[in-house]
Amino acid sequence: MTSPTSSGRDKPTIVPYNTLRSVNSPEDTQAGRRRYCGVAPASSFFDINTEENVRSYLGRDGDGARRKSTKVNVAIRETLGERREDFPLLNAGIVIVARDVKVDDNAKPPRVSLYGASIINGAQTQGVLKDYFSENPDDLDYPSVNFELIVTDDEELVGDISIARNYQNEVTNLSIFGRQGRFKELEAAMKSLDPSIKLKTRETDFGDDFLDTEKLIQVLTAMAPTDIPLPSAEKRKQKTAETIYRVYAYRHRSRCLTDFAAVMDEPEKWPSAHRFFLDVAVDAWNLYRALKGEQSFSRLVCVKGETVGGKKRVAPDGVPDGIIFPMLSALSRFLGEHKGQWRLKIPHKFPWQTFYQAAMLQETGPAVNNPQSMGKKADCYIALHGSIDMYFAMTG
C-alpha cells in the first residue's frame, strides 16, 4: 500500500459539498480523530486518489484500458442512467480518509479542503461516475453522492479501515433463489426454445453469455396481462393503475423477484402466472432487447448511441427502460392463451412507427424529457394502452 507523499499532503484537494455534519463518537473524540458525513455533487470526487484503497477501480486496467464491467459497476451505471434522482438512496456512497481538513461553510458553494486524502471505499462508484461523465461531456446533471470523511493521522488505523470497509458479504435474493433452484424451471422452458440461454442465478455470474434474470422477471411482470393475478398485487385489495398496468415493475426489481419466487413455490395457487412466466419468457425478452436498440428513438437526447455519417446510431442498449416498460405494458394486449399456452402475437401489419411516436410523445410531454419519470408515471402507461385500444378499434 502506498501512502500519499508529503507533497500530496501539502496540496489540498478541494471538495465542494451540499451538506456536511460532524458525527464524532465519544471514542473518536478520545482518540483525537474526527468524522463527518455529507452529501456532495458527484464531480466533487473526481480528483481524489484511491491509493490507499484495497480495491482499485475494476472498470479499467493499470494502463487505463477498459475492462468488461463487473455486476457491481453495471448496477451503478444502470442506477445513474435509469434512476439518477434516486442515486444517493441506492448507492452506498464514498468513504474518504484524510490526515487533516479545513471546512469553509462560508464559501459559495461551501467546501472542505482535504490534506493527504484518499478514497478507501467507493472506488467503483467514483470510477463509473468519472467514465460516464467523460463519455457524456454535455451531461452536467451530476447526481448527489453520500460520503463519509474520516480524519486521522494513524497510518495503521487507515489500513485497517480500508480493509474493513471493503468486506462485502451480502447475499442477494438472486443468489438465494438461485441456490434454491427457483430458476431451473424457467431456464428449462427457455432452453427448449433457445438452447444457448443461460440465466444468471448468483451474483458472481458475470459475462455477456448470461441473461440478466432479474431484468427478465421485471420485463415479464410489466407484460403480465391485467387478468393474471400476481401475489403482491393481490395483497392490495384495492386495484389501482399501479397494479393494473404493472407500473411497479419498473421501480421494484425485488418485488418482481419475490412475486416470481412465490409463483414458482406454489404453482397450483398461481396457475395462470406460472404458465405465463414459462410460456412467454423468450418472446418477452426478445421484444425487450429489440426495443432497447430501436433506431426510431434516435432523436431523443436520453437515448445512447454514436454518430455515424451525421446520424445517431442507437446503441444495442441505448433506449432507457423508463421508455420501454410502459410500451411493454401496452403490448401485453397482444398476449393470449391458446390450447393452454400463453403466446405473444403482434400482427405483421401493426403500425410500429405510430406506436413509437406515441411513446416519444409521452417522454417529451408528460414526462418532461425524463425517461425515469415516464417509467414511474401511470398516466404514460394509460396513454400507451389507449393507443393499443385505438388500434383494436380501428382493425376490429
If you had to describe this structure to a student in words, what would you say it looks like?
The protein is of the alpha+beta class and 396 residues long. It folds into two domains: 6-165, no CATH class; 173-395, no CATH class. The chain is 44% helix and 15% strand. It is built from 18 helices and twelve strands. The protein has helices at residues 6-10, 26-31, 71-82, 87-90, 123-135, 155-165, 173-179, 184-191, 213-223, 231-235, 241-244, 248-251, 253-265, 271-292, 321-331, 352-364, 371-376, 378-395, and strands at 13-16, 19-22, 34-41, 94-98, 100-104, 111-115, 118-121, 144-151, 305-308, 311-314, 335-338, 341-344. The strands form four sheets. A five-stranded mixed β-sheet has the order 2-3-8-4-7. Strands 1-6-5 form a three-stranded antiparallel β-sheet. Strand 5 and strand 6 form a beta hairpin. Helix 3 (71-82) packs across helix 5 and helix 16 runs antiparallel to helix 18 (378-395). The chain is globular and about 75 Å long. The relative contact order is 0.09. The model is unreliable at 1-8 (pLDDT under 50).
What fraction of residues sit in β-strands? 5-15%
Helix-strand pattern: HEEHEHHEEEEHEHHHHHHHHHEEHEEHHH
Total tally of structural domains = 2
Sheet of most strands: 5 strands, mixed
Structural class: alpha+beta
Question: In one word, what is the shape?
Answer: globular
What is the arithmetic mean of pLDDT? 89
Strand order of the largest sheet: 2-3-8-4-7
- Kindly report how far apart the N and C termini lie: 71 Å
